[in-house]
Design a protein that fits this description.
The chain has one domain: 3-Layer(aba) Sandwich (Rossmann fold), CATH 3.40.50. The longest helix is centred in the last third of the chain and has 26 residues, at about 285-310. Helix 1 packs across helix 2 (about 15-30), helix 8 runs antiparallel to helix 10 and helix 9 packs across helix 10 (about 270-280). The protein has about 325 residues and is an alpha/beta fold. The chain has a nine-stranded mixed beta sheet, sandwiched between helices. It is globular and about 55 Å long. The protein has helices at about 5-10, 15-30, 60-75, 85, 115-130, 140-150, 205-210, 250-255, 260-270, 270-280, 285-310, and strands at about 40-50, 75-85, 95-100, 135-140, 155-170, 190-200, 210-215, 230-235, 240. Helix 5 (about 115-130) links the parallel strand 3 (about 95-100) and strand 4 (about 135-140).
């Protein structure tokens, strides 16, 4: 369980109490404080856009994934995008689920948006400690690194060289019992695109927070580098990955077959890396499988909670 003591120690007693009050007020005043029967078939999702205006595939992937999930589960997904870094937009607590994206730049340098973003996350954590209706948060790549650095759960630093491609990753023992990761293959494959890394996990802080490392980077026995932490269950409702589980194979194939993008990848990473990526994308047991399991399982949990609360009422 996530420990209130951890957060009280992290913020200080007075600041913690202030966050509790803010969380309670935001929840009470949110538009979801209506009878549950009015939205039992609707999942409200906030997308926290961390790309700072830079072109990307992630936002398209997330929108498509949500549309596919709504169709497959015959539900309505009401979504809204918040431009966190460019416009300092932050959602309130009226959503069932939040997806905070990847993005460019340093996860440890300040740009002016961090205080509001981290305050929102603190309010989510405190809300989940005191309310039956939980708020579910998924953190991708840049967002994952920002949160790991903020809570001092590991060392966040630059890689020796940029990671770009489709790589095997591995499950820890905890992953076999986790609702999001238990059905992944061992190893499984995922899209990895990052200049930064989360390494040297702080076992004490992880334990006190109640967080669990679920996925790790592939072993690289030929080089003296540490394996990065690739996924953490921060709290029962907050999950994050350092890779991109939203990436879709078909979209990446189109992207890589574009003449300009093909030349860019080959010039930077070589023809072999380019061909390996295409081969992995055509394999249904690699990226397609990863995309079909991780974020959809996260959404399943948020949706199941709505239905369970309906049964209680």
């Amino acid at each position: 369980m996530c420990s209130s003591f951890f957060y009280m120690r992290h913020y200080g007693k007075n600041e913690y109490e202030k966050i509790v009050i803010q969380s309670f007020n935001l929840f009470i005043n949110s538009p979801l404080q209506t009878p549950f029967k009015t939205y039992m078939d609707k999942l409200r999702v906030a997308i926290l856009d961390m790309y700072n205006g830079e072109p990307n595939q992630g936002m398209r992937n997330i929108h498509q994934l949500l549309a596919d999930y709504a169709t497959e589960n015959q539900i309505i997904i009401e979504k809204k995008v918040y431009d966190v870094r460019g416009s300092h937009q932050i959602p309130d607590l009226s959503y069932h689920a939040y997806i905070s994206t990847g993005g460019p730049g340093s996860p440890i340098d300040t740009e002016g948006w961090e205080d509001a973003y981290l305050s929102w996350l603190h309010q989510i954590i405190v809300h989940n400690q005191i309310h039956a209706e939980k708020k579910h948060v998924f953190l991708i790549c840049h967002s994952f690194q920002v949160v790991c650095y903020h809570f001092q759960l590991a060392k966040v630093c630059l890689r020796r060289s940029e990671s770009f491609g489709i790589f095997p990753m591995h499950k820890t023992n905890e992953a076999y019992h986790n609702y999001i990761t238990k059905n992944l293959t061992e190893p499984f494959y995922a899209v990895d695109s990052r200049k930064w890394q989360v390494i040297q996990p702080n076992r004490h802080n992880l334990r006190v927070m109640g967080a669990k490392i679920l996925l790790v980077e592939k072993a690289r026995h030929h080089v003296p580098y540490e394996r990065a932490t690739m996924a953490i269950q921060f709290t029962p409702e907050i999950f994050g990955t350092q890779f991109h589980p939203e990436a879709d194979a078909d979209g990446m194939i189109l992207y890589l077959n574009n003449a300009e993008k093909k030349k860019l990848v080959i010039d930077n990473y070589g023809l072999k890396k380019y061909n390996d990526m295409l081969n992995h994308l055509y394999d249904p047991d690699k990226i397609k499988l990863t995309q079909s399991l991780i974020i959809p399982k996260f959404l399943d949990e948020a949706l199941a909670q709505i239905k369970n609360l309906m049964l209680v009422l």
